[in-house]
Amino acid sequence: MSQSLIRAISSRKNQLGFGFFSRFSNSRHFHSQWPITTPKCSTHSSLGSFVTGSRRFSGNLIPELNHTCLVRQTNGFCSVSLNEVSDSNLVNEGDNIDIEDVGALDKKKPVVVYKKPIDFTKIDAKLLPTVMIIGRPNVGKSALYNRLIRRREALVYNTPDDHVTRDIREGIAKLGDLRFNVLDSAGIETEVSSGTILGRTTSMTANVLVRTQFAVLIIDVRAGLHPLDLEVGKWLRKHAPQIKPIVVMNKSESIGESLAEVASEALALGFGEPTAISAETGLGMTALYEVLHPLLEDYMVLTLNDRCSQNDVTSDENLSEEDESKLPLQLAIVGRPNVGKSTLLNALLEEERVLVGPEAGLTRDAVRVQFEFQGRTVYMVDTAGWLERTERDKGPASLSIMQSRKSLMRAHIVALVLDAEEIIKSQRSMTHSEVVIARRAVEEGRGLVVIVNKMDCLRGKQNSEMYKKIKEAVPIEVQTVIPQITGIPVVFISALEGRGRLQVMNEVIGTYERWCSRLSTGRLNRWLIKVMSRHSWKDFASQPKIKFFTQVKARPPTFVAFLTGKTQLLESDIRFLTKSLKDDFDLGGTPIRIIQRSVLRTSPSGKSSGGSTSSSGGRARQRTTADKRTVSV
């Protein structure tokens, strides 16, 4: 009986396909006829079975299939295909393995194999190649930068005797289906002293150029090959010998027969054939695409195949499910000229990213940089010194003021930088221009953090008392001049020495999380009952009848109070509710908006009595008393 049972189980086992592998696992004939070709990636299949789509093939079904197991590349991942033998996306390179080794593939980490063509639009911005635009001053570098990023971010102004661009600007270029990081640099002049502004900008460009992969060398076709262009070429070979730049002849929209002559002169640079473009009109962008595309594609194939693994693949499936406070943060550093904004940005990045110096008004462009802090992406914008625009301000100064205001409106959190030395001299915490900045940030609904810089100037015993007075007086005075927001965080730092860097970022992150906070309607209405009971009203008739209270949006927190009847909240009532929200739910440093809406009453006849009105926080409405014969205004 036992032997019959064993034979039955063995027969059933063979029918299920397990006996196929047990009989042929050591057969040379089997391995020579059906080798499995696979790259170094996991097939995600178990021993004796393969899964393709919704079909499962056991060992007994293998003779009905093609005798080659190929691997398909789909969106950067490897998958097994058992019923197709030719495809343009199939990877043919790999190792011949035996059937008994298939189970061991599950233990290996999959390796993503990339081949041409590469879709640059689906690649993470951190992996994109970097292209720097270089050249002598006033050849159109910033104009080409704006053309590539499709926005007017870099300042463009015709100043032959001055240099508009002084810092390195970074953006994502969109040239057809190409995507790459593009850097706009200051004009290079090699024969300048190291202490001057031009010498410092050239040195900063050299430091950033070492970390780039490609470069675009611009010459002015109207001026021909200038001697300074040859000097820039020599400078480039010295500081970046690994980079062979692409020579571009800008401003070629109105050049006719002389274009070929200038192109022949540009060969003296030794970087190959030049490409004629016009950054202002967009002429020649197709030719520039044809030059850049094969170079960037070859680089991406090598880079992705070297770096990609299962841990490198990022997915955006859960992006919509993330908390709003985990989204990238936009931080704008604003303040008066020469208070240490650029020094603070360098201290936060821990590198010399923007130009700094004792000269006032050194920063002209609003420089936007990206960095990671505690797993969070932060975009910081270093703005030019905030001044009131006058009729005398023309040219780059006027453009800088407008750009600083735009940066403030685009930011999530505004870091207002104050000067400790100026506070001591003027005996007040904030000047008129700084109060204007803070109030404008509040009006735009941005979170606010106040930073007092240059506290290292108050060292020593003789300044110890002044140091204590400033730390006590500044928060109180800031709260006095900006009553719209309570609980504004004030941080005392020394950007030059790097002290207070972590404290600044912690306050910024905390303010941003409060700015993105959301409160449930049930929690708000339970809170409302307690708040309304502890407020002192004149009488029961004067108390507004709030039916319920809810939050309709965040960033900044916005609430709606639904009231019954025609009674509306006064300014004092809105200030009371705002202060109670900030105190009870820890919403300091963020503006709070309260909107009023009247709930329509339906009469027995079916007609609605009373109109639906709404008003923003801070606006008083006429109040109707209980006695309908008299109306108080």
TrEMBL record:
PANTHER family named in the record: GTPASE DER
Location of the G domain: 130-251, 331-454
SUPFAM superfamilies: P-loop containing nucleoside triphosphate hydrolases
Domain of life: Eukaryota
Region of interest: Disordered: 598-633
Keywords: GTP-binding, Nucleotide-binding, Repeat, Ribosome biogenesis
Family annotation (HAMAP family): GTPase_Der
Residue spans of biased composition, Low complexity class: 601-619
GO biological process: ribosome biogenesis
Name recorded for this polypeptide: GTPase Der
UniProt xrefs under Pfam families: KH_dom-like, MMR_HSR1
Organism of provenance: Brassica oleracea var. oleracea
Signal peptide: none
Basic and acidic residues: bias regions: 624-633
Domain GTPase Der C-terminal KH-domain-like: 518-597
GO molecular function, one term: GTP binding
InterPro entries: GTP-bd (IPR006073), GTPase_Der (IPR016484), KH_dom-like (IPR032859), KH_dom-like_a/b (IPR015946), P-loop_NTPase (IPR027417), Small_GTP-bd (IPR005225)
Similarity annotation: Belongs to the TRAFAC class TrmE-Era-EngA-EngB-Septin-like GTPase superfamily. EngA (Der) GTPase family.
